[in-house]
Sequence to fold (409 residues):
Amino acid sequence: GKSINPTRVGIHPATSEDPVKLAAASLLAALCDGWAGNRKILRRADGVAILRSFVDAVTVTDRAVPIALSAAVIYATWRCLVPDAKNCAHFVAGGGLAQLLNLLLACTPTLRPVVVSTLADILENPKTHLFFHEWRSTGGRHALVPAGGQGITLMLNLWRAEEGKMGTTRRDGTLVNPENPLRGSAEFVKPDDGGLVTTYSTLTVERSATEEAAAKAAKRDADHMMSRVFAVCSLLGFDNLRAYCSPADALTLTIVERYVDFREGETWEETEEMFREEGMRPVAADRQHMEASIAEARESALELRDVQREMLAAEEEKARRLEAEFYEQMRMQKEREEAHRWYRRDMSKLTMKERLTARLAKADIIDGSFRGHSSQFLTVHSRDLDVTGGSEEHHARTLEPMTVRLEPM
Fold:
Protein backbone atom coordinates (compact mmCIF):
# COMPACT_ATOMS: atom_id res chain seq x y z
CA GLY A 1 0.00 0.00 0.00
CA LYS A 2 0.94 3.65 -0.07
CA SER A 3 3.52 4.72 2.50
CA ILE A 4 2.19 6.87 5.34
CA ASN A 5 4.21 9.74 6.76
CA PRO A 6 3.79 9.64 10.53
CA THR A 7 4.48 13.37 10.81
CA ARG A 8 1.27 14.09 8.87
CA VAL A 9 -0.95 11.76 10.86
CA GLY A 10 -1.47 14.31 13.62
CA ILE A 11 -0.91 12.13 16.67
CA HIS A 12 -1.62 14.18 19.79
CA PRO A 13 -2.26 13.37 23.45
CA ALA A 14 -5.79 12.04 23.81
CA THR A 15 -8.36 14.06 25.71
CA SER A 16 -11.25 11.66 25.16
CA GLU A 17 -11.99 8.31 23.61
CA ASP A 18 -11.79 8.29 19.80
CA PRO A 19 -13.93 5.41 18.49
CA VAL A 20 -12.23 5.50 15.07
CA LYS A 21 -8.70 5.18 16.47
CA LEU A 22 -9.89 2.61 18.99
CA ALA A 23 -11.44 0.48 16.23
CA ALA A 24 -8.34 0.87 14.02
CA ALA A 25 -5.99 -0.28 16.78
CA SER A 26 -8.21 -3.25 17.60
CA LEU A 27 -8.47 -4.18 13.92
CA LEU A 28 -4.70 -4.01 13.46
CA ALA A 29 -4.17 -6.35 16.41
CA ALA A 30 -6.72 -8.80 15.03
CA LEU A 31 -5.25 -8.74 11.50
CA CYS A 32 -1.65 -9.24 12.63
CA ASP A 33 -2.24 -11.77 15.40
CA GLY A 34 -0.88 -14.98 13.89
CA TRP A 35 -0.53 -13.58 10.36
CA ALA A 36 3.09 -12.91 9.39
CA GLY A 37 2.09 -11.58 5.95
CA ASN A 38 -0.03 -8.81 7.46
CA ARG A 39 2.85 -7.79 9.75
CA LYS A 40 5.08 -7.46 6.68
CA ILE A 41 2.49 -5.29 4.90
CA LEU A 42 2.22 -3.13 8.03
CA ARG A 43 5.99 -2.63 8.10
CA ARG A 44 6.15 -1.59 4.44
CA ALA A 45 3.36 0.94 5.01
CA ASP A 46 5.32 2.66 7.80
CA GLY A 47 3.00 1.06 10.33
CA VAL A 48 5.85 0.59 12.82
CA ALA A 49 6.47 4.33 12.97
CA ILE A 50 2.74 5.02 13.21
CA LEU A 51 2.28 2.67 16.17
CA ARG A 52 5.38 4.10 17.83
CA SER A 53 3.91 7.61 17.53
CA PHE A 54 0.69 6.34 19.08
CA VAL A 55 2.69 4.93 22.00
CA ASP A 56 4.25 8.36 22.41
CA ALA A 57 0.79 9.94 22.46
CA VAL A 58 -0.35 7.47 25.11
CA THR A 59 2.71 8.29 27.20
CA VAL A 60 1.85 12.01 27.46
CA THR A 61 -1.89 11.43 27.85
CA ASP A 62 -3.31 12.42 31.22
CA ARG A 63 -4.10 9.49 33.47
CA ALA A 64 -7.64 10.76 33.99
CA VAL A 65 -8.47 10.02 30.35
CA PRO A 66 -10.20 6.62 29.80
CA ILE A 67 -7.66 3.92 29.02
CA ALA A 68 -9.48 1.90 26.34
CA LEU A 69 -7.51 3.49 23.48
CA SER A 70 -4.24 3.26 25.43
CA ALA A 71 -4.80 -0.43 26.10
CA ALA A 72 -5.71 -1.04 22.44
CA VAL A 73 -2.52 0.71 21.26
CA ILE A 74 -0.29 -1.35 23.57
CA TYR A 75 -2.06 -4.55 22.60
CA ALA A 76 -1.66 -3.70 18.89
CA THR A 77 2.05 -3.06 19.48
CA TRP A 78 2.32 -6.39 21.24
CA ARG A 79 0.60 -8.35 18.47
CA CYS A 80 1.77 -6.43 15.39
CA LEU A 81 5.39 -5.61 16.14
CA VAL A 82 6.85 -7.84 18.85
CA PRO A 83 6.33 -11.29 17.21
CA ASP A 84 7.98 -10.17 13.97
CA ALA A 85 11.77 -9.90 14.23
CA LYS A 86 12.11 -7.08 11.69
CA ASN A 87 9.16 -5.11 13.04
CA CYS A 88 10.51 -5.44 16.56
CA ALA A 89 14.00 -4.38 15.46
CA HIS A 90 12.62 -1.26 13.74
CA PHE A 91 10.51 -0.48 16.79
CA VAL A 92 13.39 -0.81 19.27
CA ALA A 93 15.91 1.02 17.07
CA GLY A 94 13.47 3.91 16.72
CA GLY A 95 13.21 4.30 20.48
CA GLY A 96 10.20 2.08 21.05
CA LEU A 97 11.58 0.27 24.09
CA ALA A 98 12.42 3.60 25.75
CA GLN A 99 8.90 4.83 24.94
CA LEU A 100 7.39 1.78 26.65
CA LEU A 101 9.54 2.41 29.73
CA ASN A 102 8.47 6.07 29.72
CA LEU A 103 4.85 4.92 29.51
CA LEU A 104 5.36 2.48 32.36
CA LEU A 105 6.92 5.28 34.39
CA ALA A 106 3.65 7.18 34.90
CA CYS A 107 0.75 5.24 33.36
CA THR A 108 -2.33 4.15 35.26
CA PRO A 109 -1.77 0.90 37.23
CA THR A 110 -4.30 -0.91 35.06
CA LEU A 111 -2.00 -0.64 32.04
CA ARG A 112 1.16 -1.80 33.80
CA PRO A 113 0.73 -5.58 33.35
CA VAL A 114 0.34 -5.46 29.57
CA VAL A 115 3.24 -2.98 29.22
CA VAL A 116 5.56 -5.18 31.30
CA SER A 117 4.47 -8.25 29.31
CA THR A 118 5.31 -6.42 26.08
CA LEU A 119 8.72 -5.47 27.47
CA ALA A 120 9.38 -9.06 28.54
CA ASP A 121 8.64 -10.37 25.04
CA ILE A 122 10.92 -7.74 23.49
CA LEU A 123 13.74 -8.59 25.92
CA GLU A 124 13.75 -12.21 24.80
CA ASN A 125 16.16 -10.93 22.14
CA PRO A 126 19.51 -10.33 23.94
CA LYS A 127 20.36 -7.55 21.47
CA THR A 128 17.66 -5.37 23.05
CA HIS A 129 19.11 -5.56 26.57
CA LEU A 130 21.48 -2.65 25.99
CA PHE A 131 18.54 -0.33 25.29
CA PHE A 132 17.04 -1.28 28.65
CA HIS A 133 20.29 -0.79 30.57
CA GLU A 134 20.93 2.62 28.98
CA TRP A 135 17.45 4.00 29.65
CA ARG A 136 17.16 6.76 32.27
CA SER A 137 14.01 8.19 33.81
CA THR A 138 12.85 11.71 32.94
CA GLY A 139 11.07 12.03 36.27
CA GLY A 140 7.76 13.78 36.73
CA ARG A 141 5.03 14.33 39.26
CA HIS A 142 3.61 10.81 39.28
CA ALA A 143 6.73 8.99 38.08
CA LEU A 144 7.65 5.72 39.77
CA VAL A 145 11.34 6.61 39.49
CA PRO A 146 12.96 10.05 39.95
CA ALA A 147 14.85 11.73 37.14
CA GLY A 148 17.98 9.79 36.20
CA GLY A 149 16.69 6.51 37.64
CA GLN A 150 17.53 3.21 35.94
CA GLY A 151 15.24 0.72 34.26
CA ILE A 152 15.89 -1.94 36.89
CA THR A 153 14.85 0.51 39.60
CA LEU A 154 11.58 1.07 37.73
CA MET A 155 10.93 -2.68 37.57
CA LEU A 156 11.78 -3.24 41.21
CA ASN A 157 9.60 -0.30 42.26
CA LEU A 158 6.70 -2.11 40.59
CA TRP A 159 7.63 -5.19 42.61
CA ARG A 160 7.90 -3.15 45.83
CA ALA A 161 4.47 -1.64 45.17
CA GLU A 162 2.99 -5.13 45.12
CA GLU A 163 4.94 -6.02 48.27
CA GLY A 164 3.45 -2.97 49.94
CA LYS A 165 -0.07 -4.12 49.09
CA MET A 166 0.56 -7.52 50.69
CA GLY A 167 2.88 -6.40 53.52
CA THR A 168 5.58 -8.95 52.71
CA THR A 169 8.63 -6.83 53.63
CA ARG A 170 9.70 -4.51 56.41
CA ARG A 171 10.93 -0.96 55.93
CA ASP A 172 14.51 -2.16 55.52
CA GLY A 173 13.47 -4.54 52.71
CA THR A 174 13.80 -7.82 54.64
CA LEU A 175 11.13 -10.53 54.69
CA VAL A 176 8.35 -10.26 57.27
CA ASN A 177 7.19 -13.88 57.26
CA PRO A 178 9.80 -16.47 56.28
CA GLU A 179 7.21 -19.21 56.88
CA ASN A 180 5.18 -17.87 53.96
CA PRO A 181 7.09 -15.02 52.23
CA LEU A 182 4.36 -14.03 49.74
CA ARG A 183 1.56 -13.66 52.29
CA GLY A 184 3.18 -11.10 54.53
CA SER A 185 1.47 -9.35 57.40
CA ALA A 186 -1.31 -6.75 57.66
CA GLU A 187 0.94 -4.73 59.97
CA PHE A 188 3.28 -3.88 57.10
CA VAL A 189 0.67 -3.19 54.40
CA LYS A 190 1.29 0.21 52.83
CA PRO A 191 -1.54 2.52 51.69
CA ASP A 192 -2.18 3.17 48.03
CA ASP A 193 -1.11 6.34 46.25
CA GLY A 194 -4.55 7.81 46.89
CA GLY A 195 -8.09 7.48 45.70
CA LEU A 196 -8.72 8.13 42.04
CA VAL A 197 -11.63 10.45 42.75
CA THR A 198 -9.57 12.83 44.86
CA THR A 199 -6.52 12.67 42.60
CA TYR A 200 -8.24 13.06 39.25
CA SER A 201 -11.28 15.25 39.59
CA THR A 202 -12.14 14.92 35.89
CA LEU A 203 -13.32 11.34 36.32
CA THR A 204 -17.04 10.73 36.49
CA VAL A 205 -18.45 9.00 39.55
CA GLU A 206 -19.35 5.88 37.57
CA ARG A 207 -15.96 5.58 35.92
CA SER A 208 -14.11 6.27 39.15
CA ALA A 209 -16.07 3.48 40.86
CA THR A 210 -15.07 1.14 38.04
CA GLU A 211 -11.42 2.16 38.39
CA GLU A 212 -11.51 1.68 42.16
CA ALA A 213 -12.98 -1.80 41.71
CA ALA A 214 -10.28 -2.63 39.15
CA ALA A 215 -7.60 -1.40 41.54
CA LYS A 216 -8.92 -3.61 44.33
CA ALA A 217 -8.99 -6.59 41.98
CA ALA A 218 -5.38 -5.89 40.97
CA LYS A 219 -4.41 -5.71 44.65
CA ARG A 220 -5.93 -9.13 45.30
CA ASP A 221 -3.98 -10.60 42.41
CA ALA A 222 -0.58 -8.98 42.86
CA ASP A 223 1.09 -12.17 41.71
CA HIS A 224 0.37 -11.24 38.09
CA MET A 225 2.68 -8.22 38.26
CA MET A 226 5.34 -10.05 40.28
CA SER A 227 5.55 -12.85 37.75
CA ARG A 228 6.05 -10.32 34.94
CA VAL A 229 8.78 -8.47 36.83
CA PHE A 230 10.48 -11.81 37.51
CA ALA A 231 10.34 -12.60 33.79
CA VAL A 232 12.00 -9.29 32.87
CA CYS A 233 14.75 -9.67 35.49
CA SER A 234 15.47 -13.29 34.59
CA LEU A 235 15.78 -12.40 30.90
CA LEU A 236 18.21 -9.58 31.69
CA GLY A 237 20.18 -11.81 34.06
CA PHE A 238 20.26 -11.36 37.83
CA ASP A 239 24.06 -11.25 37.91
CA ASN A 240 24.12 -8.58 35.21
CA LEU A 241 21.65 -6.45 37.15
CA ARG A 242 23.50 -6.87 40.45
CA ALA A 243 26.67 -5.60 38.77
CA TYR A 244 25.38 -2.01 38.60
CA CYS A 245 22.18 -1.66 40.63
CA SER A 246 21.98 0.20 43.95
CA PRO A 247 22.24 -1.62 47.33
CA ALA A 248 18.49 -1.19 47.91
CA ASP A 249 17.73 -2.68 44.50
CA ALA A 250 20.18 -5.53 45.12
CA LEU A 251 18.34 -6.36 48.35
CA THR A 252 14.98 -6.52 46.55
CA LEU A 253 16.56 -8.46 43.70
CA THR A 254 17.38 -11.30 46.08
CA ILE A 255 13.65 -11.75 46.73
CA VAL A 256 12.75 -11.53 43.04
CA GLU A 257 15.34 -14.18 42.21
CA ARG A 258 13.65 -16.68 44.56
CA TYR A 259 10.11 -15.84 43.53
CA VAL A 260 9.54 -19.18 41.79
CA ASP A 261 10.57 -21.11 44.93
CA PHE A 262 8.26 -19.04 47.11
CA ARG A 263 5.37 -19.29 44.67
CA GLU A 264 5.77 -23.05 44.40
CA GLY A 265 5.76 -23.45 48.17
CA GLU A 266 2.67 -21.25 48.47
CA THR A 267 0.88 -23.28 45.80
CA TRP A 268 1.58 -26.53 47.63
CA GLU A 269 0.36 -25.02 50.91
CA GLU A 270 -2.87 -23.92 49.22
CA THR A 271 -3.26 -27.40 47.76
CA GLU A 272 -2.68 -29.01 51.15
CA GLU A 273 -5.25 -26.70 52.74
CA MET A 274 -7.77 -27.49 50.01
CA PHE A 275 -7.34 -31.23 50.59
CA ARG A 276 -7.79 -30.72 54.31
CA GLU A 277 -11.00 -28.70 53.86
CA GLU A 278 -12.49 -31.29 51.53
CA GLY A 279 -11.48 -34.20 53.74
CA MET A 280 -9.20 -35.71 51.13
CA ARG A 281 -5.97 -37.46 52.02
CA PRO A 282 -3.26 -37.73 49.32
CA VAL A 283 -1.33 -40.95 48.88
CA ALA A 284 1.95 -41.27 50.74
CA ALA A 285 4.14 -40.40 47.75
CA ASP A 286 2.15 -37.23 46.92
CA ARG A 287 2.01 -36.20 50.54
CA GLN A 288 5.76 -36.66 50.91
CA HIS A 289 6.45 -34.61 47.77
CA MET A 290 4.10 -31.88 48.98
CA GLU A 291 5.71 -31.65 52.41
CA ALA A 292 9.22 -31.67 50.91
CA SER A 293 8.34 -28.81 48.54
CA ILE A 294 6.86 -26.71 51.36
CA ALA A 295 9.89 -27.36 53.57
CA GLU A 296 12.26 -26.45 50.73
CA ALA A 297 10.47 -23.13 50.17
CA ARG A 298 10.67 -22.29 53.88
CA GLU A 299 14.37 -23.17 54.02
CA SER A 300 14.97 -20.94 51.02
CA ALA A 301 13.13 -18.07 52.76
CA LEU A 302 15.16 -18.52 55.98
CA GLU A 303 18.37 -18.60 53.97
CA LEU A 304 17.31 -15.46 52.14
CA ARG A 305 16.60 -13.68 55.43
CA ASP A 306 20.16 -14.44 56.60
CA VAL A 307 21.58 -13.23 53.28
CA GLN A 308 19.60 -9.99 53.56
CA ARG A 309 20.81 -9.41 57.10
CA GLU A 310 24.41 -9.91 55.98
CA MET A 311 23.88 -7.45 53.12
CA LEU A 312 22.43 -4.84 55.48
CA ALA A 313 25.28 -5.35 57.96
CA ALA A 314 27.82 -4.97 55.16
CA GLU A 315 26.18 -1.74 53.99
CA GLU A 316 26.15 -0.35 57.52
CA GLU A 317 29.83 -1.21 57.95
CA LYS A 318 30.62 0.40 54.61
CA ALA A 319 28.73 3.55 55.62
CA ARG A 320 30.64 3.75 58.93
CA ARG A 321 33.95 3.26 57.15
CA LEU A 322 33.17 5.96 54.59
CA GLU A 323 32.11 8.32 57.36
CA ALA A 324 35.36 7.68 59.27
CA GLU A 325 37.41 8.24 56.10
CA PHE A 326 35.54 11.48 55.42
CA TYR A 327 36.29 12.88 58.88
CA GLU A 328 39.92 11.74 58.64
CA GLN A 329 40.29 13.56 55.32
CA MET A 330 38.71 16.67 56.85
CA ARG A 331 41.16 16.51 59.78
CA MET A 332 44.17 16.10 57.49
CA GLN A 333 42.97 18.92 55.28
CA LYS A 334 42.64 21.16 58.34
CA GLU A 335 46.17 20.33 59.44
CA ARG A 336 47.58 21.06 55.97
CA GLU A 337 45.75 24.38 55.82
CA GLU A 338 47.05 25.30 59.29
CA ALA A 339 50.63 24.41 58.37
CA HIS A 340 50.40 26.31 55.10
CA ARG A 341 48.96 29.34 56.85
CA TRP A 342 51.81 29.51 59.37
CA TYR A 343 54.40 28.95 56.65
CA ARG A 344 53.15 31.71 54.34
CA ARG A 345 52.30 34.08 57.17
CA ASP A 346 49.18 35.27 55.44
CA MET A 347 48.05 38.03 57.80
CA SER A 348 44.54 38.08 56.38
CA LYS A 349 43.94 34.52 57.66
CA LEU A 350 45.58 34.90 61.12
CA THR A 351 43.72 35.59 64.31
CA MET A 352 44.39 38.81 66.29
CA LYS A 353 46.61 36.95 68.74
CA GLU A 354 48.59 35.32 65.92
CA ARG A 355 49.04 38.66 64.19
CA LEU A 356 50.34 40.28 67.40
CA THR A 357 52.77 37.38 67.97
CA ALA A 358 54.07 37.64 64.38
CA ARG A 359 54.41 41.45 64.63
CA LEU A 360 56.39 41.27 67.91
CA ALA A 361 58.66 38.59 66.50
CA LYS A 362 59.32 40.72 63.42
CA ALA A 363 60.10 43.77 65.62
CA ASP A 364 62.59 41.74 67.65
CA ILE A 365 64.35 40.59 64.46
CA ILE A 366 64.63 44.16 63.14
CA ASP A 367 65.84 45.52 66.50
CA GLY A 368 68.47 42.81 66.75
CA SER A 369 69.73 43.56 63.25
CA PHE A 370 70.45 47.22 64.19
CA ARG A 371 72.34 46.24 67.31
CA GLY A 372 74.46 43.78 65.41
CA HIS A 373 75.80 46.48 62.95
CA SER A 374 76.55 49.29 65.52
CA SER A 375 80.35 48.70 65.60
CA GLN A 376 80.93 48.87 61.83
CA PHE A 377 83.38 51.42 60.36
CA LEU A 378 81.89 53.81 57.79
CA THR A 379 83.57 56.33 55.50
CA VAL A 380 81.54 59.50 55.00
CA HIS A 381 82.46 61.94 52.23
CA SER A 382 81.16 65.47 52.88
CA ARG A 383 83.09 68.77 52.52
CA ASP A 384 86.25 66.68 51.97
CA LEU A 385 85.97 65.55 55.61
CA ASP A 386 87.00 62.01 56.50
CA VAL A 387 85.26 60.66 59.62
CA THR A 388 86.46 57.28 60.83
CA GLY A 389 85.47 55.26 63.87
CA GLY A 390 83.72 56.69 66.92
CA SER A 391 80.36 55.96 68.42
CA GLU A 392 76.94 56.19 66.78
CA GLU A 393 76.03 59.17 68.97
CA HIS A 394 79.18 61.09 67.88
CA HIS A 395 78.47 60.36 64.21
CA ALA A 396 74.89 61.48 64.57
CA ARG A 397 75.89 64.85 66.11
CA THR A 398 78.67 65.39 63.58
CA LEU A 399 76.58 64.54 60.50
CA GLU A 400 73.30 66.07 61.55
CA PRO A 401 73.60 69.51 59.86
CA MET A 402 75.03 68.26 56.56
CA THR A 403 73.87 66.12 53.63
CA VAL A 404 75.40 62.64 53.84
CA ARG A 405 75.86 60.11 51.03
CA LEU A 406 76.87 56.60 52.05
CA GLU A 407 78.98 54.71 49.51
CA PRO A 408 79.37 50.93 49.78
CA MET A 409 82.89 49.57 50.18
Summary: The chain has a mean pLDDT of 77. The CA atoms of residues 30 and 205 lie 32 Å apart. The longest strand covers residues 380-382. Residues 284-344 form the longest helix (61 residues).
